[in-house]
Design goal:
Distance between the termini: 22 Å
CATH superfamily: P-loop containing nucleotide triphosphate hydrolases
CATH class: Alpha Beta
Number of helices: 9
Helix content: 25-40%
Bound molecules: adenosine-5'-triphosphate
Shape: globular
Strand content: 25-35%
CATH architecture: 3-Layer(aba) Sandwich
Radius of gyration: 17 Å
Structural class: alpha/beta
Largest sheet: 6 strands, mixed
């Protein structure tokens, strides 16, 4: 069962197709996410998870289908217009500028809506950032870069966060810290769509999981049913 009856989802994606140039990558993504939910996209390498996030953000050369965010149709919107609706994107490559200080990196994305976290609130979530404010981006560890990448999006006022592989390549203790942060953000009412290949991490933070295969959503699992659905997931993910 792929469809889920949810009252009015914050975001509803229907039959989303996307291309990079001539390459047709997404062949019909259907998903929805309710306000305050944490949902993951799971799938093998190359399945189209990153492309799904980039398509929602308007960052592919062509996309068709329907993406309603807060009731507004955004399929014809630019990335900037989508960001203004309160959507923030944390890319896998993090996008921290090596030659800028932590403070400069933190303040780089403009505030797009009221309700963004203050610097103080960001330092409460990520104490390391406060300690490194004057350091250059190049001096940060992978974990610190990730916290900065997430922190600066929280500053913008975005309420729907699209996060790509937050835990990739990070030490277990940092992964735990990021998990605790996501749970804290969920408590504060943020809505999060997360591409994740660390399956156990996904289990610790998410309400539901969509499985992406060859540019399509092929299944959906509630986190509460995850253990019981493991044989099925293993077939999809080859884990
Ligand atoms: N800029 C691009 N131009 C052309 N093809 C691309 C581009 N980026 C990704 N692709 C292709 O799109 C397909 C889906 O890639 P995508 O990065 O969305 O997968 P993914 O599920 O996120 O996997 P991974 O975990 O490997 O990043 C792959 O076949 C990839 O080679």
């Amino acid at each position: 069962m792929l469809e889920r009856a949810s009252a009015t989802p914050l975001m509803a994606v229907k039959n989303l197709e996307a291309w990079y140039g001539e390459s047709h990558i997404l062949h019909g993504i259907d998903l929805d996410i309710a306000e305050g939910e944490v949902v993951t996209l799971l799938g093998r390498n190359g399945a189209g998870k990153t492309t799904a996030l980039r398509s929602i953000m308007g960052m592919v050369s062509r996309r068709t289908g329907s993406i309603r965010i807060g009731g507004k149709q955004t399929i014809g919107h630019t990335s900037r217009q989508i960001a203004r609706l309160g959507v923030g994107y944390v890319p896998e490559e993090r996008g921290i500028y090596a030659s800028l200080t932590v403070k400069e990196n933190l303040h780089l994305p403009p505030r797009i809506r009221p309700g963004g976290l203050s610097d103080e609130q960001i330092f409460e979530l990520f104490p390391n950032i406060r300690e490194r404010l004057a350091s250059h981006g190049s001096k940060l560890s992978g974990g610190e870069q990730q916290m900065l990448a997430l922190g600066r999006i929280l500053r913008t006022g975005a309420q729907l966060l699209l996060c790509d592989e937050l835990t990739e390549g990070l030490a277990p203790v940092i992964v735990q810290q990021i998990g605790a942060t996501l749970r804290a953000l969920r408590q504060r009412g943020f809505t999060i769509l997360l591409v994740e290949s660390n399956f156990r991490f996904a289990q610790g933070v998410a309400d539901r999981h969509y499985i992406v295969e060859q540019g399509r959503i092929v299944d959906m699992v509630d986190n509460d049913d995850l253990e019981h659905s493991l044989p099925r997931l293993n077939r999809y993910l080859g884990v």
